[in-house]
Amino acid sequence: MIIETADISDAGKILELQKLAYMDEAMLYSNFDIQPMTETLEDVCSEFSNQLFLKGVEDNLIIGSVRGMEQDGACLIGRLIVHPNHRGKGFGSLLLEAIENSFPQCGRFELFTGARSERNLNLYRKHGYSAFKTLPAAHGLELIYLEKIV
User: pTM higher than 0.70, yes or no?
Assistant: First the structure.
């Protein structure tokens, strides 16, 4: 997998992959109204103005993506996705490391995931993230916020 900076022309493919990648999460929570599933192309395109999008490419196909932005000296990481057929190969780790390396000026990294998303939690903990708060979200969903201080 080659990791590159995505541009707005990739938005449609990233959104398509996002909905496919988050299908497992939607099924886990029996909630297909989670934001990654309801986000529109217009929503994703608008995020290109204030977030860095990275894409993982293999055989000219986008098989992974992650977003990040700096806020108050911290890098906020979101939508780390890998195509279901490419999971378990370390691509999520590569994308996470790539977005962190894209913000060397940040001394703190923050992300969140669902409280029952063990695969995600294991990945983040493996990379030095630890939980610092839990908040309720819509439809009974609980989100765990994790941080990594460098």
Answer: yes
